[in-house]
Amino acid sequence: MLHIVLVEPEIPPNCGNIARTCAATGSRLHLVEPLGFDVSDRAVRRAGLDYWHLVQVAVHPSLDALFTLHPEAAADLWLATTKAPRDYSQAGFSPDCWLFFGKETAGLPADFRERYRDKCIRIPMIDEARSLNLANSAAILIYEALRQNGFPGLLGTGEMSQAL
Q1: pLDDT in tens, 126-150
Q2: Which of 4, 127, 144, 159 is deepest in the core (most CB within 10 A)?
Q3: For residue 10, with 0-12 CB atoms within 10 Å meaning exposed, 13-18 middle and 19 or more buried, which class applies?
Q4: Taking the model in full, what pTM does it have?
Q5: Residue 23 — very low, low, confident or very high, per pLDDT cuts 50/70/90?
């Protein structure tokens, strides 16, 4: 199972879109505080997130707390950052890897990026573009990791594959 980590996410619709991608792919979502929004049951119901029950969500008070609870994450992680020295096509994703994404206004903390410099990857784009939307970036990397592993547990065909 892929682990998607949003570090200090700020924009509720981005988190909602990423949660929906996690629901559709069976990926686990980890949120590192502080959060720019409320993820209580009441708030989720009010937002109309009818797929939220399909998402395995864990909220962590800090990156240190996440790594204390999940020390295995340090051995199998990838950090998405526009500052990375290489693009994501050069990464070999395992079926259980951890994909880290930073907050919309600042990205991942510099010391965290430096600690895992060799695991930093970027999505190619033109020089003039600052970055992609967080939800789009997460979807690209989630599906690349799943593709590399044969889309484990996901349907490979739709109803149109059935004979008429």
Answers
A1: 989 888 999 999 999 999 999 999 9
A2: 4
A3: middle
A4: 0.92
A5: very high
